[in-house]
Amino acid sequence: MIEQRIKAVFIGSVGNLVEWYDFYCYSAFSLYFAKSFFPSEDPVARALSTAGIFALGFFIRPVGGWLFGYVGDAMGRRRSLMVSVLLMCFGSLAIAVTPGYASIGAGAPIILMTARLLQGLSLGGEYGASATYLSEIANGKWRGFTASFQYVTLIGGQLTALLVLFVLQYFLLTDAQLRAWGWRVGFAIGAVLALVALVMRLTLMETDAFLRLAPEKRKASKLHELLRHWREALIVIGLTMGGTLLFYVYTVYMQKFLKLSVGLNDIQTTAVSAASLIFAMALQPIYGAISDRVGRRPLLIGFAVLGTIGTVPLMTAISHAQGPWEAFFLIALAWLIVSGYTSINAIVKAELFPAAIRATGVGLPYAIAVSLFGGSAEWIALWFKSEGMESGFYWYATAVVACTLIVVVRMRDTHKHSALDRDQVAAA
Predict the structure, then answer these.
(1) What CATH number does the domain containing 9 carry?
(2) What CA–CA distance (Å, rounded) separates 358 from 69?
(3) Can you tell me the distance from the alpha carbon of 236 to that of 345, in angstroms, rounded to the nearest whole number?
(4) pLDDT digits (tens, 9 = 90+) for 173-216
């Protein structure tokens, strides 16, 4: 049984990594393919165009959260995970083979947008399904540690995208080749990896929490059930809004920030981004294990307080960094704060909802908050920059995290009041 759990956690985590690699390949390579789809001569304008479609991929995520949440709660966590990764494969393949603007005109950005919508739909379902699966498959004493691997692999997906870019940049292709066609290699790799993840997920065991559900519980209206748990849904939105905003600031937007604001070159930007993601990955299981000992709420309060008072000074300091090493240490300092949220957010949300509504309850409110505050982060930051008010974005981020602080202060510690424990008591 222990071997089965380890295998299930490994396969679930690897599949999650592939999904996030595919999704963040867009961000990692956007500096290179932007001109192929958006031929403006202004680099900030091109960045705004690609960021807009990046954000669009997030706006469809609530639909994915609802759709795959229903599949996960009605038909099984395993089936939801399989369908979501297959959909991601189609999105990545479409981007890899789409001709540029010079070949088919406006059709190029339209196809790009459609592919991103497919990827956003897939990822909207992946989060709730994988968070639910990892939380339910985990041993009760190590739930925080086990669920933290969702963000280990989530960040790992981003890191893999950056490493693929780094190898192409530094060892295999010239800058001209990378901009002309080399960026397609990253998306082609993603499509192949998604098929591999699908095959691996075919062997996943279903969770006991789902198997114990009575047929009438599986068939019940999930939106109706979610309305009965509206307080928990609002807590998910409140927790996510500040956490997801800072997460995307220090991952997706940071690559553009280091290039356009700090002034690092392409190689330095990729190296600093990759090194900071490795550091962030190492923090996730450490913080998750700590939460299994002291509870979830202390980590969340630490994140929200330090995020509220530290975002403006940190972003200001990074913008004035003197070289890549200083930039890396400042971003690493930011990750010491943000990991208080990222490491345990999956388990906290899973512990709020009963098994019959867990995948929908985790996935849909999370996707709503991410689409509003996470997916828009890069676009809003670039807009402030284009208007000559870059520091205004720092204050916007601070205000959003302050709202999360209010939620954290008022909520109970889910480690002590866990719906996962109530599921086990009811089954006994």
Answers:
(1) 1.20.1250.20
(2) 8
(3) 9
(4) 888 899 889 989 999 999 998 888 888 888 888 888 888 887 87
Which residues have a Cβ under 8 Å from the Cβ of 293 and sit 6 or more positions away?
Answer: none
pLDDT higher than threshold 80 for residue 303: yes
Angle between helices 390-410 and 377-386 (to 10 degrees): 150
Residue from 162, 183, 190 nearest 92 by CA: 190
Neighbours of 44 (CB within 10 A): 14
**Intra-chain end-to-end CA distance of the chain, in Å:** 19
Query: Which of 117, 129, 124 has its CA nearest to residue 15?
Result: 129
CA atoms within 13 A on the CB side of 126: 35
Q: Please tell me the total count of domains within the chain.
A: 1
Neighbours of 424 (CB within 10 A): 13
Residue 299 phi/psi, 5-degree rounding, is: -65, -40
Structure tokens at 93: 């393949």
Write down the number of H helices and E strands in the chain. Answer: 23, 0
Q: Where are the beta strands (DSSP E) in 212-308?
A: none
- pTM of the predicted structure, to 2 decimals: 0.85
pLDDT in tens, 36-65: 787 666 565 556 566 667 667 778 888 988
- CB atoms inside a 10 Å sphere around CB 41: 7
Range of the domain at 158: 2-207+215-427
Residue type, 48: L
